[in-house]
# Entry
Amino acid sequence: QVQLVESGGGLVQAGDSLRLSCAASGRTFSSYAMGWFRQAPGKERDFVAFISWDGGSTYYADSVKGRFTISRDNAKNTVYLQMNSLKPEDTAVYYCAQHSRGTSWLSRSYGYWGQGTQVTVSS
# Structure
């Protein structure tokens, strides 16, 4: 069993920064790629970022490229999402997930999910 716990969300103004953290326990964290997704009210859950098991590869949604950075610390069993230059359209619940198999930007490729953390960006 895997437990993923996100933290770091909050209410910020446009242009501010936030860093989300996702602490993992259970299966060997360093063996799995990880991803961040987000879901705004009334919308589907969207891919945000992906990082390989060793941090050597990262991918981003076009909407966040250049503003968000995903990273991981395998010694701490934690994956991060640094979010800069936040915009009101970034408002959503952000979820971290552990990749199982398949296409990295599809939510069905992930087997374990955290409970989510709310990010609200005011204009």
Notes: The longest strand covers residues 18-25. The two ends are 40 Å apart (CA to CA).
